[in-house]
Structure of FAD-dependent oxidoreductase:
Amino acid sequence: MTMENKYDLIVVGGGILGTFHAYHAIKKGLKVALLEKDGKPQGATVRNFGQVVPSGMDSKWQLYGRESLAIYKNIQSKFDISVRQEGSVYIASNEEETQLLLELNAINLANAYPSKLLTQGECLEKYPGLRTDYVKMGLFFPEEIMVEPRLMIGRLQDYLRELGLEIFFNKTVIECNALTNWVQVHSTDNTTLSGTKVIICNGSDFKNLYPNRFAESDLVVSKLQMMQTKPQPNYKLPSSVLTGLSIRRYEAFSECPSYSAIKARENHESLERKWGVHILFKQAADGSVIIGDSHEYAPASRIEELGMDLNMDIDHFILQEAKKIFDLPTYRIQNRWYGLYSQCKSADIYQQTIDRNIHIVTGIGGKGMTGSAGFAKENINSIFNLQDA
């Protein structure tokens, strides 16, 4: 084996989770290769809102998210990866949601995470088109950021190339052989690389390489539908906007004292419960507004149950609810899509180690864009038994 093909770490999967594992390994001075099965990432990393919102995470993952914020901003100061610090706001539409915002604000004050309550008038002044008959109060998180997902991941990888990362696209890994002190990785085009450690961060590669372990896992897949309006004429929506249904869904609010009682009073037969809908708005760099989303679930081993098509009834329902919140200049839609996100039923993230040096790390679910950078830093330190500088 030539030195050119031997690495300290081989990362399989070029999405956000795999790329940030590579980033932190490079930062520790390790020689790293990243293998991506497609010509560029196609999965959940490029099929989401691009909101980095530690405010929506439970206490454990908020810490990872806050670390992620610092990492994104640090990279942006050196290399443009499309980061915009415009903050995030949660908009309450009734007394129950207002109570949850008050309680979450108190929790964040205790955690020293900046947030600011906004009156109805302040919300109406700050967010053009917000309907008076919807908003009761807001909670604003000034530190939070947004990115353009389809731009960000490619630019992040370009930046990592400058730091020494070797990236191999269109490389489908078909075999990982654990030897005495390293692992040999083979791809369909007869490429062979050797690494001291291998981290597999893609559910498809996990399924192909270890089908039995994959079938025995408790991974589930969520299908999320989103859409994008035409560019909005002469309109600026500052910050990411998360609304009442988000308040009722996001993990952070489950730590609020009133949460359990409020959830218990919800209508379990409603369409928002049936389809897992909560309404988000984010203005993209071209002036369009991204709106969503929904959550339908199936075991990862039966992903076909989710279907290959968009459910237009869900899209129509999302639009109907969105129009109750914002009067946008236009609701003409230019793009519709769905993303598939794997998550672990029994843990925050799926992790399994095979033969000491092969690490499966996947199933981060909807926490990927917000939590991956911070989580990967800790995980690289753990896998390589490193101490933070």
